[in-house]
Specification:
single chain, 216 residues, mainly alpha, three-stranded mixed sheet, 7 helices
Length: 216
């Protein structure tokens, strides 16, 4: 893409983002947020003041290779997006739906990248099976899946920072700069980083879920 073309795309996205930032204090009723199928014009989401499907399609490639991969995941697996406010972000495979928290306005696109990473590994059968796996391999595998998603979010944010000056870092970005992927995995596996939805350390949560499924 030429510098002019890249600038034009960024300009379009920033214009949409300005509308989002102006109106994001008001959250409509959850049922009012529409997630349509890819055959529709609005492929993933949208109700202004949120980012529209076209905003997402234009914005994700600005996040580098990880953003392009996330866009491919949305299109390939028809994964939908729903917005929440103050509840954290997560992906639910049974619904093929990612929930994106509006609280961190500057990181909506990179959060989509993070949750799309979970969606892809779930669709491709790369997550450990909670029934067939023993406890420790399950916990280790799920921590690795979370670490992988966070690394992709960090890399996408680094790519987006090249387009948007003064964009804040995402969580663990400095640790990644110092210690790479292993530093991210260590932070998650040690329990230092907790789930944004309930504040539970990841290993503790995964162990709890494993025990529930195994009747313990």
């Amino acid at each position: 893409m030429t510098a002019l073309g890249r600038s034009a795309k960024l300009g379009l996205f920033e214009s949409a983002a300005e509308k989002f930032f102006r109106g994001s204090s008001k959250l409509p009723e959850r049922d009012a947020v529409i997630a349509a199928g890819p055959a529709d014009e609005e492929e993933f989401v949208t109700l202004l003041p949120y980012l529209s499907a076209s905003d997402i399609q234009e914005g994700l490639p600005l996040c580098g290779r990880e953003g392009e991969e996330a866009l491919d995941t949305l299109l390939t697996y028809r994964t939908k997006i729903q917005y929440t406010e103050g509840l954290g972000s997560w992906y639910t495979h049974d619904e093929n739906m990612m929930y994106i928290d509006l609280t961190h306005k500057w990181h909506l696109l990179t959060t989509v990248v993070h949750e799309a990473a979970h969606a892809r590994t779930a669709h491709e059968g790369l997550r450990p099976d909670i029934i067939k796996s023993d406890r420790k391999p399950y916990i280790d595998g799920m921590c690795k899946d979370e670490s992988n998603a966070q690394v992709k979010q960090i890399l996408s944010n680094m790519g987006y920072q090249r387009c948007v000056p003064n964009l804040p870092d995402v969580i663990l970005q400095r640790e990644y700069a110092r210690g790479g992927e292993q530093a991210i995995l260590d932070s998650i596996h040690s329990g230092r980083i907790v789930r944004c939805t309930d504040g539970i350390p990841y290993p503790q949560y995964f162990e709890r879920m494993w025990r529930v499924h195994h009747g313990e």
